[in-house]
Automatic annotation (TrEMBL):
Catalytic reactions of this protein: L-aspartate + 2-oxoglutarate = oxaloacetate + L-glutamate
Matches recorded under PROSITE patterns: AA_TRANSFER_CLASS_1
Protein name (Swiss-Prot/TrEMBL): Aspartate aminotransferase
Cofactors (names): pyridoxal 5'-phosphate
Originating organism: Caenorhabditis auriculariae
Gene3D superfamilies (UniProt xref): Aspartate Aminotransferase, domain 1, Type I PLP-dependent aspartate aminotransferase-like (Major domain)
EC assignment: 2.6.1.1
Length: 403
């Protein structure tokens, strides 16, 4: 007899499970297009040179120690992260209406935001895009939200954003529902609303008094330009919308396992900030008490030094350029093979992922026959492609689609 008798086995977390299946695979030729992490053209993880330099400097800085950070995090990092997403000249910052809360990567920022919105503001209804990142629903459910709903995002037939249905779903949402919006490089589809479409979304969010929760995990990584990738967030701020924005520095700094994130908060009346920060301190205290310092110090050092910041900009440009090259190459090869279907969506999409349109049977076939590992919804991590395996992957997709 044990307290733990009868615990049901939960389903595996797909990205980590598929990544492990790839690692355990013994076949001599195999390709990993699963978990969202950058790879070089040699298929290797990449420590950004500027991150390495910053780490060396930190390691040699005798003034640093391992004392606790404040509950809300490293002040320089919080300010730098907030300015990165809102823009250096953001009126919300200069008017004292915006601030950051250091969190454990994007997931921690989502969780802290969810708990705050539920336990402090009493909000219980959240809408996520259909489809969305595999963790959104779990984070909000465990954060206390009792109603986790979908808004239509994807038009599978035309492989684009289903803007009319999206707007219709938001029109039906009750007042004060929380709307999760992917700031750029939508995961998993890789397709973002156009500026005109974002304007329509902002209009309905404002008119219906919905609450904006941006999730921006790919700023700078998506297009190579951090300002361009933050356009939607900044537009919503310009429209006078209050919001929270979860930021991750996993992809754009390659700091995946350092769990560096920030929750940027924009309010209309700065007199609410003292109450907000005191209540958020209790949310953080009950979760991780205070955040780790290393990754935050690295990001702060890089963003606050113009020379290092330029080096970082060169690295994000290099990563996004390699992704664009691989998108073009995959499309070109599928078209050259005459693979049934249209493949122009691969180059219309942006960021790490492509929603290929392959169905679950085709995904299973690609894995079992060709050892090309991808997610069951057909999402591939474009970073897993390189000049050595692209021909193989294109041939494998071609054979699969014809099978
Ligand atoms: C992904 O979508 O593959 C990444 O964001 C990793 C994760 O935690 O799911």
């Amino acid at each position: 007899m044990s307290f733990f008798d009868g615990i049901p086995v939960a389903p595996p977390i797909e990205v980590f499970h598929k990544n492990k299946l790839y690692l355990d695979e013994q076949a001599p030729v195999k390709v990993n297009l699963t978990i969202g992490a950058y790879r070089t053209n040699d298929g290797k993880p990449w420590v950004l040179p500027v991150v390495h330099d910053a780490e060396v400097q930190l390691a040699n800085d005798a003034t640093l120690n391992h004392e606790y950070l404040p509950v809300l995090g490293h002040e320089g990092f919080r300010a730098a992260a907030t300015a990165l997403v809102l823009g250096e000249n953001s009126p919300a910052i200069s008017e004292g209406r915006a601030f950051g809360v250091q969190c454990l990567s994007g997931t921690g920022a989502l969780r802290a935001g969810a708990e705050f919105l539920h336990h402090v503001l009493g909000l219980s209804v959240v809408y996520v895009s259909k489809p969305t990142w595999g963790n959104h629903k779990l984070v909000f459910t465990r954060g206390g939200f009792t109603s986790v709903r979908d808004y239509t995002f994807w038009d599978a037939e035309n492989r684009c954003v289903a803007i009319e249905k999206l707007i219709a779903d938001l029109e039906e949402a009750p007042e004060k529902a929380v709307i999760i919006l992917h700031g750029c490089a939508h995961n998993p589809t890789g397709m973002d609303p156009t500026k005109e479409q974002w304007k329509k979304i902002a209009e309905v969010v404002k008119r219906k008094n919905l609450f904006t929760f941006f999730d921006i995990a790919y700023q700078g990584f998506a297009s190579g330009d951090p300002d361009a990738d933050a356009w939607a967030v900044r537009y919503f701020v310009e429209q006078g919308l209050e919001m929270v924005v979860s930021q991750s520095f996993a992809k754009n700094f390659g700091l995946y396992n350092e769990r560096v994130g920030n929750l940027t908060v924009v309010v209309n009346d700065k007199s609410v900030i003292a109450g907000f920060q005191s209540q958020m301190s209790l949310v953080i205290r009950a979760n991780w008490s205070n955040p780790p310092a290393h990754g935050a110090r690295v990001v702060h050092l890089v963003l606050s030094d113009p020379k290092r910041r330029n080096e970082w900009m060169e690295s994000i440009k290099a990563m996004s350029d390699r992704i664009k090259t691989m998108r073009a190459a995959l499309r070109e090869k599928l078209e050259a093979l005459g693979t049934p279907g249209s493949w122009n969506h691969i180059t219309q999409q942006i960021g790490m992922f492509s929603f290929t349109g392959l169905n679950e049977d085709q995904v299973n076939h690609l894995i079992s026959k060709h050892k090309v590992f991808l997610l069951s919804d057909g999402r591939i991590n474009i970073c897993g492609l390189n000049t050595n395996n692209i021909e193989y992957v294109a041939q494998a997709i071609d054979e699969t689609v014809r099978a």
